[in-house]
Amino acid sequence: FESAKDLPGSAQPQWVDLTTYLRDDLLAKADKMSMVNGLEVRVPFLQASVVRAAFSLPQRERVGREQPLKY
Predict the structure, then answer these.
(1) What confidence tens digit (pLDDT) does each residue in 21-45 have?
(2) How many C-beta neighbours within 10 Å does residue 30 have?
(3) 3-class secondary structure for 14-67?
(4) Cβ pair 59, 8 in contact under 8 A
(5) Phi, psi at residue 38, to the nearest 5°?
(6) Cα angle at 33 between 29 and 34, to 5 degrees?
(7) Which residue pairs from 51-57 have beta carbons closer than 8 angstroms and sit at least 24 positions apart in sequence?
(8) Residues 10/63, Cβ–Cβ less than 8 Å
(9) Cα end-to-end span (Å), the chain
(10) Are 6 and 15 in contact (CB under 8 A)?
(11) What is the Cα–Cα distance from 58 to 10, expressed in whole angstroms?
């Protein structure tokens, strides 16, 4: 959390998710489950240069616009 303190308010939770939950939980589970089942799984868009480019976008462009409910 300390590494996110200099980021704008709404970018802080994005950075924390990227550096903790995504790396330590979701990616590890995807890797283990794919190996157990003999699958080759590729996690897209996590190359460092792509992540840096995404974080360089203005916040209003990173966060999706509010969508109408489907039903």
Answers:
(1) 777 777 788 888 888 888 888 776 6
(2) 14
(3) HHHHHHHHHHHHHHHHHHHHHHHCCCCCCCCCCCHHHHHHHHHCCHHHHCCCCC
(4) yes
(5) 70, 35
(6) 115
(7) 51/18, 55/11, 55/14, 55/15
(8) yes
(9) 37
(10) no
(11) 11
**Single-letter amino acid, residue 43:** V
Cβ(11)–Cβ(59) below 8 Å: yes
* Exposure on the CB side of residue 8, measured as CA atoms within 13 A: 9
Does the pTM surpass 0.85? The reply is no
Residue with tokens 């792509």: 50
